[in-house]
């Protein structure tokens, strides 16, 4: 990810937004006594109550729909960093141009400079000595149409609201109290910093939970029900590259490293990147591509684990290429570092001509415009993006389809139990934005789909809409490999037209269960 400084406009090779100033770093910005006298601060408890109410009533929370007072209060109770999306004056549909237009061109650059000039003039007029706009306090992203400013001045927000160049502005660092989403029945279910992080071998599997396939691999019990095993006679994903944005790959799982080409999987590649940064201000640094959670390893295994010789789980598209990007530390995109990391990951994959499919088994309960811009960037560059509808391991089932699966640019997937009819899995979300379902939970035992554990040759089991999304991404790779000249829309239409409920669409489950065999032409 690249940024331009406000004054020098020199290119800075940065992966996520980094700010610096001459003051000593603080975790949150204090405000002057004069500012406190002018503007009452809404406490975080009240901000969270408003967020929760919006989620219950509308299914989402949009910062730009809130008052300037609330935005200001969230800004100064966060890290004082404001994300500002911009556009050329008069452009009617700027979202459709993200990823296609060069934001360093004259009309886009004029918009960003106009915003920065307004901010600088406002701070100067108000004589805000602690918040003078310096080179290090404002950075313009080189590929996405947003800039980020370290500022805490109420009038700046008021002025931004009036500018035709502004698409949105949001306090990137405000932290919502996710424990409020609990039903109250189980305090232990509250959001944890390692949400969704577990991927150990399942030692309780029975022979009914998998099918042995050559040379010595285990096909998950649900592969037959989804037509995946049958589809392998026509396609194994060869020549298709799938990008996975998640928590990375475990260096201790050989089948996603040196053993990626083994057994009946050959002639393909795996690549690993890390866009997630930790630290503060200009001390931020990448923490690498390695999975410290386990979720990314499991999802990548579902998609592309080799048809191996060691008795481990085989992936849906076991001859596809895999690019893993560690963009987040867990499954919830809630911190500023995770938002930055996921946005950069989408740009990275969007810029790669070999990537056709992006799988995102991650999300958040409400929208973030920076990440949304990055989703549009990748989508407008032709990528087929699958996103998880939501998994309630850490919040209640009343939450509908989560972000970014609720975007029109993504394909939302959720999981259901085996058997007749449609019964969502114990932890899965459903809703009108869902496009497809995947059978991934046994009705009797509750066993979920098989994948690769962080290490060893014994499979793990993974559940929720996460594994459903990874499975759908793998099926898309099978379809595209069978029809390499097809466009994204042709692949998606083929998946729709061969799904269980097509041409009808359920209000909760979309077109229903995917059928990989039918999608690749198996009678």
TrEMBL record:
Gene3D superfamilies given in the database record: Peptidase S8/S53 domain
Domain Peptidase S8/S53, first and last residues per copy: 237-512
UniProt superkingdom: Bacteria
Record keywords, A-Z: Hydrolase, Protease, Serine protease, Signal
Endpoints of the signal sequence: 1-20
Record: active site: 246, 295, 466
Similarity annotation: Belongs to the peptidase S8 family.
PANTHER family cross-referenced by the UniProt entry: NEUROENDOCRINE CONVERTASE 1, PROPROTEIN CONVERTASE SUBTILISIN/KEXIN-RELATED
This protein's name: Peptidase S8/S53 domain-containing protein
Species in which this protein is naturally found: Algoriphagus taiwanensis
